[in-house]
Write a structure and sequence with these properties.
Length: 249
């Protein structure tokens, strides 16, 4: 009996080691990321619809291994300003061609600024629409790029989905892995998420990276400029005409 158990344990250990050895890191310089997969992923070209209706170019990387499923979606938001401005121009009155005529100045004529700033939340929201029980939702980062961490139990088969949604260099990244409920979390996949430059070299920041502040400091400044303080008779923000404090004594 002891020999049989020893042989069985050896078989399980060997199978587990062989499975682990199949994992490797894959870097995709054209889409700016790297991650560990258990096999070479299939790549499909598609479109991703943003919150404000822009059909953005996207790629989907997938690996299916038994009942384990791994997927990375990359949506190119660098195209959002052009697409949304073009869409807005179709309905913009010809006699008011500036951005005020088709939207708020802060939002931009085609609302691309809100679309870009809210992309991570939009990607996260899609998970909340699934037939699943949300068990974890938190702010997180991978290689110091901030995003949202998601865990859920799928109602259909009780499998578990683990995901990370983030923006980097104006691209939306959705990393997700689904495994049977009785299997361990897909740690190799989850903890290997990283970023690469155009040459495939790893990118590592010294502090937490925020896409809108890093890539659009002119539109999303770290410190907003004050129009006025709204005090006394200076006519600043919040002060009514005439200088009297609103509702003051």
């Amino acid at each position: 009996m002891r020999v049989s158990r020893l042989v069985f344990a050896l078989v399980i250990f060997t199978a587990g080691s062989a499975f682990a050895q199949n994992w490797d890191q894959y870097a995709f310089k054209e889409d700016g990321f790297k991650v560990d997969f258990p096999a070479q992923p299939k790549v499909a070209t598609t479109t991703f619809k943003s919150e404000y209706g822009a059909d953005l170019p996207a790629k989907v990387y997938t690996v299916d291994q038994g009942r384990d499923h791994y997927k990375v979606t990359v949506a190119d938001y660098t195209q959002a300003p052009r697409i949304l401005d073009e869409n807005a121009a179709k309905t913009c009155p010809k006699d008011f061609p500036d951005e005020r005529s088709c939207g708020l100045t802060n939002a931009g004529r085609g609302y691309w600024k809100e679309d870009l700033a809210g992309a991570t939340l939009w990607g996260t929201y899609a998970f909340l629409q699934r037939d699943a029980k949300l068990t974890h939702l938190a702010y997180a980062w991978q290689d110091l790029v901030q995003g949202h961490e998601i865990q859920m139990i799928n109602n259909a088969d009780k499998s578990r989905t683990f995901a990370f949604v983030a923006m980097h260099k104006d691209k939306l990244y959705i990393f997700e892995a689904t495994v049977p409920g009785n299997e361990p979390p897909p740690g190799l996949f989850q903890q290997s998420v990283g970023w690469v430059d155009k040459d495939g070299n790893g990118v590592r920041y010294q502090s937490i990276y925020s896409d809108v502040y890093a890539e659009h400091p002119d539109v999303f400044p770290g410190q907003p400029k004050l129009v006025g303080q709204g005090r006394g008779g200076g006519g600043g923000a919040g002060a009514p005409a005439g200088g009297a404090p609103a509702g003051g004594r």
